[in-house]
Amino acid sequence: MDYKDYYAVLGVKKNASADEIKRAYRRLAKEHHPDLHGEAHKAKAGEKFKEINEAYEVLSDPEKRAKYDQIGPGWESAHHQRPGPEPSPRRGAESFSGFSDFFEELFGGAGRRGFGVSDAYATEPETGRDIEAELPLTLEDAFAGGDKRISIAVPEVCPACGGAGRRGRGFCPSCGGVGELQRQRSITAHLPKHVGDGVKLRLRGQGSPGQGSREAGDLFLRVKLLPHPRFKVSGSDVETALTLSPSTAALGGEAGIATLEGPVRIRIPAGTHSGRTFRVPGKGLAKGGGARGDLYAVARIDIPEPLSDKARRLYEQLRETEE
Ligand SMILES: [Zn+2]
């Protein structure tokens, strides 16, 4: 009895994911479906088709796959050393299923799940895939929220080959054998206000279109805030510089902080040093639950330029008092 390398049949690696196995199966099943071949090749395609389905039957079922993975090409000798191998009760006409002897020996009747070649054949239309894409946003746009038109490449099943990647005996010229085409689509995303960096927005039904009447996948947009010349984002907090004149810093007073939602006036205590940080609560980015982060304004003392004659004289007097 020949060992069957199901991974080789599907052309996947031994550590292939369930998704990779499914995709490989779909592609091969479409390629070798007997109905797609002329009389001359029908029988040969049918053989190959059975082999593909058997491999998929095993590798798509975690239990069967685990059992299969435990054996190797040396399986037969190991198997034969086992004392008194019990004959499979399912052998005979009623178990005829198109499966190989290897499969029957390994799984017998117990491992089967009412499988028939026809219902495993995956011409069934599939729901569209979810897509994830980055959404670069300026801080102004992130604060404002609202509708934003974006252009995005969405993979769609190639209409020329129906996703099989092949036409006739060659690769599909439309998609180059991939089975998918990237189509640029214009989408309107509704942005919440004050959306933070890394937030994922879900746009239902805007992913890859489903086949036939199946529903489309979702589009997940991951917000990527672009660097801003005046504001630095740290989580849901935003930091900016607060420029103070030396007199305000020394004597105290009021100063305006430019925020992304217009200026905010704050009180500056006398004797404010450069680097002192003022917190403006709730003026940062959204941090979930309706709450918002804070705005931090870092004091920076700046000399007005150019100095007026009067100011110069006053500074000179000031210097005298310092000496
Ligand atoms: Zn194609």
C-alpha Rg (nearest Å): 34 Å
Strand content: 25-35%
Task: Write down the CATH class of the largest domain.
Answer: Mainly Alpha
- Please tally the β strands and state the result: 13
Helix fraction bin: 25-40%
Kindly report the CATH topology of the largest domain: Helix Hairpins
Strand order of the largest sheet: 8-9-13-12
The CATH architecture of the largest domain: Orthogonal Bundle
- Give the averaged pLDDT, no decimals: 82
Instruction: Catalogue the ligands.
Output: zinc ion
Number of helices: 10
Rounded to the nearest angstrom, the distance between the terminal CA atoms is: 104 Å
Major pleated sheet = 4 strands, mixed
Q: Which descriptor suits the 3D outline?
A: elongated
User: What is the structural class?
Assistant: alpha+beta
Features:
323 residues, Helix Hairpins, HSP40/DNAj peptide-binding domain, 4-stranded mixed sheet, 3-stranded mixed sheet, binds zinc ion
Topology:
Layout: H1 6-10, H2 18-32, H3 39-59, H4 62-70, H5 75-81, H6 101-107, H7 117-120, E1 131-137, H8 139-144, E2 146-157, E3 166-167, E4 170-171, E5 180-191, E6 200-203, E7 219-225, E8 232-234, E9 237-244, H9 246-251, E10 253-259, E11 262-268, E12 277-280, E13 295-301, H10 309-322
Parallel strand pairs: 1-7, 9-13
Antiparallel strand pairs: 2-5, 3-4, 6-7, 8-9, 10-11, 12-13
Helix pairs in contact: 2-3
The structure holds zinc ion (ZN).
Zinc ion binds next to loops.
